[in-house]
Design a protein that fits this description.
By secondary structure, this protein is α+β, with helices and mostly antiparallel strands. It is 32% helix and 10% strand. It is built from three helices and six strands. A four-stranded antiparallel β-sheet has the order 1-2-5-6, covered by helices on one side.
Length: 208
């Protein structure tokens, strides 16, 4: 009798799935600590970059106003006084006369009617074109007012009233005495004033 032997068949059984290992509380705390450290390092940098950009934007805005003043002087032979008693003038609360003097138009786009503006610019000549971005938006504490990039409405202009191309320390009334330069060679300068007597206020001066 012939005997047949069958080869053994080996069946490969799949390895049982490994149980997933979760994060330990130590690992989670370590990740949170790393994120906190990165945020602590990056937030001041981002704030500094943002503030620097806003200062540059404000300087550019003030430089544009100064250019408009120079265009006015070139046309009329003197800088606009806007009814100010001295050489220094704060735009806050005086937006109408400022806009109407430089544009010949009111804030509503209609022909200027402000008495000071018409005295300074009777022909209603346009020396500057304001954009909506220069005015505080709805809901802002100074809604509708001209503001700088930080939202500050205290924008001040000082001009040469003697016609000698020099602005002197005595021409400033709003700028604190310790901040006043002895003399400035030029006819018109702008700066942002401290709205709340904040000791950490960083003045933005077009001559500095």
């Amino acid at each position: 009798m012939t005997t047949y032997s069958h080869p053994k068949v080996h069946i490969q059984r799949p390895n049982p799935p490994r149980a997933r290992r979760g994060f330990t509380i130590v690992e989670v705390l370590l990740v949170v600590a790393v994120i906190a450290i990165l945020m602590a390092l990056l937030i001041p940098v981002a704030t500094t970059v943002r503030d620097s950009a806003m200062r540059n934007k404000t300087r550019a805005q003030l430089a544009q106003y100064a250019t408009a003043y120079e265009a006015f002087r070139a046309d009329r032979g003197h800088y606009p006084s806007m009814g100010a008693s001295g050489a220094e003038f704060n735009l806050r609360g005086n937006n109408s006369v400022f806009v109407e003097t430089l544009t010949g138009r009111g804030l509503d786009g209609n022909p200027a009617t402000n008495a000071y503006a018409l005295r300074a610019n009777p022909a209603r000549e346009r020396y500057y074109t304001f954009s909506a971005a220069e005015f505080a938006p709805a809901g802002h504490p100074h809604e509708g007012e001209i503001v700088d990039a930080f939202g500050n409405p205290n924008i001040v202009v000082v001009t040469d009233r003697r016609g000698d191309g020099v602005v002197r320390s005595a021409d400033f009334q709003i700028l604190p005495a310790e901040r006043r330069p002895q003399t400035l060679m030029g006819g018109v300068f702008f700066y942002t004033a401290n709205p709340g007597e904040n000791t950490e206020w960083e003045w933005i001066l077009t001559w500095d």
